[in-house]
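Please, why this fold?
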Amino acid sequence: MKRARTTRAAAILLGPFFVLFTVVMVLPIGYAVWLSLFTEKQSGLGFGGTETVFSGLDNYTAALGDRAFREGFGVLLGYCLFYIPLLLIGALALALLLDSALARARRFFQLALFLPHAVPGIIAALIWVYLYTPQLSPVVSAMESGGIGFDFFSPEGALPSIVNIALWEWLGYNMVIFYAALQAIDRSVLEAATVDGAGAWRVALSIKVPLIRASVVMVALFTVIGSLQLFTEPLILNKGTGSAVSSTWTPNMYAYTAAFERNDYGLAAAASILLALTAALLSFVVTRFTGRKGKKA
């Protein structure tokens, strides 16, 4: 009887979550999979209407066979190799600095570093486009007056420009996560290490960082997933700036272009499913790798 009441209470409490999860997650994914299996074709010589026909895996082979789609994954690879280490190391370094005994005005710097994250991504991208644009940006003018010439919209400068925008948005947010984890560490452990003669660097790298390993793994996992969804920043740089960022620069932009510029919803759905499978695979690899490393430690 007691077990039945517990089961009923759990079902009542969890029911709204599963309903919402089904409506906003399961059904859209199922619809995208269904949509990816069909394509629209014009009848006759193009004078008739369009009809939706079953195409099987043709949309998937078309996406994988498109050089622009494959190159988008190459861009994501470069972005991840450049952005993720900078974000993790930078956020962890800032958190350790705020957690150290030398830090002053911690509340102020927490707020100051977190504030950029409160700015919506599209607004942040617009701000940085202004700061990247020659004849408008005081930053570019200062660089040119110092003899430093750098085109933020060039093929060589586009990726660093977008990485810089993403770091500005997310560095403070992840710093707060690391700082909260550091604050949860038992201070007696740190005091014991100090009494044993460990210096500040040894305490930080050999005690604090291993103790917040779970938070580092979580941030790394979410950052990998978020990096694969790169869309807003390159889309803004693509619009009217003369940038080297094309309309298919990332897989997300490729799907967006296929759906809303070419009206090929089947191809867009297939590209989205392939991107989702890539994110799931990388998430599995990250969790498996970090799990094995944690067992060895």
